[in-house]
Amino acid sequence: MFILNKKYFYLTLILFLIEISIAAFANDSFIRPFIGDILVVILIYCFVKTFLNIHSSIIAFSVFAFSCTIEILQYFNFVNNLGLQKYKIMAVALGSVFDWKDIIAYAVGMIAILWLENKSWV
What we know:
Elements: H1 6-25, H2 31-51, H3 56-75, H4 78-81, H5 88-94, H6 100-117
Helix pairs in contact: 1-2, 2-3, 2-6, 3-6
C-alpha cells in the first residue's frame, strides 16, 4: 500500500512548479482561475499516488470530493471564521471565494486523470 513512486513524485514537482508560476505570473480570467484549478486536482492526485498504491479511480474521486469540500467551505467563509486570513499562503491555498466554476474545473481535472490513467502509455 505505501510506496514511493518516482514517476508521480516527479509529476508532483513539475505540477507544483507550474502552479507556483501560475500564481506568480498569471493574472487573467482563464489560466489562473480555471487551468490552475484543473491542475491543482491533478497535483493533489499525483502527490497521493506518490505514496499510496490505491486504484486510480478511488484517489481521483477522493481528490474531487476533497476539492469540492474546500470549495463549499469557502461559501461559509471558513478562512475568516478560523482566523486564517492573516496567513497569506494559507488563505491563498484554501481560497476565500466560492465559485461554481471551480467545481466544474475540479471535475475536468478528475476526468483528465481518469482518462490519462486508462491510457496504456501513461
